[in-house]
Amino acid sequence: MTGPTDETSGADETSGAGDSGGPGDSGGADAAASTGVATVVAPWVRTRLRAAPGVAVALALLVALTACLAAAFPRAVDRYEDAGLRRLLDDATARRTTVQVYAPQPGVELPQEEREEALRGAALRAANKKVLGAVERPLVPDRAQSSYGVRTANPGAALDPWLPRPTGLPARMSLTAQNGLADHARLREGRLPRVRGAVTAATPEVEAAVTTATARTLGIKVGSVIHLPGVEREPLAVRVTGIVEPREPDGAYWSAMPVLRKPSLMQLATPAGVPNRYWLGALLLPPDAAPALLGTAGKPERYWQLAPDTTSLTAHEVDRLSSAIAALESGPGLGRVREKVDPLADVATDLDDVLTSFVRLRSGIGPLVAVAAFGAGTVAAVVLLMAGGLAVDRRRAELALLRARGGSLRGVAGRLLAETAVVAVPAGALGLAVALLAVPEDRVAHAVAAAVAVTALACATLPVRAAFAHRAVRIHGGREDLASVRPSRRRTVAELTLLVLASGAVAALRRRGASGDQLVALAPVLVGVIAALVLVRLYPLPLRRLARPAGRLRGAVAHLSLARAGRTSVSTVLPLLALLTALTTAAFGGSVLAGVHDARDRAALLVTGADARIEATHPLPAALPGQVRRASGVREVTPVSIAYEAQVGDGSGTEQEVVALVGVEPGAYGRLARRVGLGGFSGTELAAPAARGSSGTTAGAEKQVLPALASPAVAGRYGTRPFAVRLEDGSQVTVRITAVRDQTPAVSDLDFLVVDRAGLPARPARPTALLVTGGHLDGGALRDAAGTGVEVRLRAEVRDGYVDSPLQTGAERIYTAAVAAGAGYAVLALLLALLRAAPERTALLARLRTMGLTRAQGRRLLVLEALPQALLAAAGGALTGWAAIRLLSPGIDLTAIALATPDSSSGGARLRTDAVSLILPSLTVLALATGIAAAQAWWSGRRGSVRELRAGDSR
Predict the structure, then answer these.
(1) Whole-angstrom distance between the N-terminal and C-terminal Cα of the chain?
(2) C-alpha to C-alpha distance for 727 and 27, rounded to whole angstroms
(3) Which of 284, 360, 753, 937 pairs with 168 at a CA distance of 20 to 30 A?
């Protein structure tokens, strides 16, 4: 003999420990005390770690990696949700996110001095502190960008004729006395406005400043005087003393009221339809000049603008933030503001609408991420259970000997827990630390809980499985494979329970969508669980039937491999469960990502109609199609003319309907429509009559009836009878609907008529758009060829525009990472399963080689033995993935994660089966299983049979 193995030495040492103070044994200690002989007990943990250091290191790595991934997941979710919230708030602009608190001017029943004092800077500053005190967390105002002051709610019309008047209407100027002008602006010309003496409602002149944009647009200079109408007094003169430039133009100080930064050209629609436009600007007064606004007709009001501090907002506080805003708008917060500031004060903001849109987007993305997280977490948990099971199997003789020599279940389980915890707890802490450093985020509770759960599972697996396996004192156990052992009632009840849970989750998801509880997110995992349990019960049956005819073949390899594969142990459930769960999650995740990509591509195609779209509001140059064809990557150019305001009536002139009339070359446009899948048709269906009239004249076009392809709504209203269509230039054509299509490349989300361009009058027939197809189109070259005044949109650019939120990109990355982690753990489960059977297989090959089995036959034996299980896992994984997608697809909408701003014409994004996501993971599992079996056979063949047999018999 070459010496004792690790198991034997461990059993000897631990059995000695059991004799002298081991679990459940007190006789040894009494005997030692009676004889007075000191007994030295070997420390259990140190002995086990020295006996199997490689196993301890492997367990530490597994626990550290799993704890790191588990702790990083909630922090990564928080990170991309916080980034998505801040991006949404930034995109919403300060005008929508700022909380506006405003109060009217003091009542006229008050003394004039008291009214004037209430508008001065000191009073507003004191009121601002009270308003800030009424705000509840987590709504934290950004004091640097928040502002307060007095403004005219009704900007007055300037009396000075030198101000620009686009349509004869005088410019209107908003008088605004806002705090902090010197801190938020740079002086470009003149000086900042000042107050001389006490300003009252009767003060004839005040000073003001304007921004550079206002001065440039309205022609205002330093020293200019603007007069605004007064009430029971002479007009108020406002002298401009300085021109300033905003330090942060996009900040809330300037953007909450954009008119402060730059003037706007306002438009009034008159009853006759003639637009009247006027300029609206702002004059920036010092805070103590606000009482002068009481002498104008501008209805002055006090205001306090609270800009939220977006850096302090987090996604997990959105519900509390919405509650705080609601309390400030119409709850206790508003009551406090009215009590401390003004009984008529009011609060308004669009921040709650912005938060609602964020919650809607997050609620559509969250369940999909939960599906991937539960799938990967299930596979990781299975791997930890398999690792504990492998340790129990390897130490079966040692643990049986401990129980036979008097060790209690509690004592044995306690020692196993101690030796596992010594390794797992530091490894779990290390994984948690790495996750906290790698993914910086404020919250740590969820990460700590996830890491603790992983560590607890790793610590409990070995002692619990050992206690369950050795609850009865015995040395040799009976056979536990499905061929001879009837499934227990407990196992049947557990399988039926999982079946009920899976059925309930699937039914709930189909009924209410992906907005249910976490059980719904477990539905794909439970489908894989049920499939694993069913397949383990059923698949040995056909293998046994195949083994009988294989026994009549020449050679024993085929028969022996089928017979061994049919004698699968119950322990095969866990690796098969890991593989099926990983394959189901991978198929589900791959189909989700493929569905997201297809939805974006489809939505971009509906916008552009081809790979690129060149369009203008006027006819394009005749030479432009040729220039575009010569651009890099262009394969085909299809010119079309689009009249978006064509009018269709019933002939009486009392009812007119607007449709888009598209003039095309039927052959080329039909090919394009068939290629892109948007209402393809044959070119002959729309060919105009041969006689076109007087060479495209209006009279000739009106006489002939053009075949038309129509949208369903237009076809339903006009049928197949001829009817007139009046074009935008006043010309008219007569069309008859000969074909109906839901969509067409030239227009989207509009009712349309498509006719042969050759039958239109000369001017409407000129192309206004080019639909370009090709690969790797150069957007710069197309824009250079199109020139100015022409819009160029590439399908790829439009598709990329649908991804404008970190919520979407973050969810996609986490989904991909979760699927990859699940696949990695599945491979690890496959390796653990083969490691568990490695000693027995190696001994089998050694014995068979002594009977004449060649190395090539040994390799074929192991490969053929592993092949049925690999085929089972691959086929079962593809089947369960397909079933899960088919069952769950009605309840899952990918629109939120696919499209940032869903378009009604895109038709949404539903989950569909992706063949590559089904087949590729299954083929990978099949290749890995056979490859590992072949590698194991090759490695076993390098060792001599005599040496292998002398190492011990595993029977």
Answers:
(1) 18
(2) 108
(3) 284
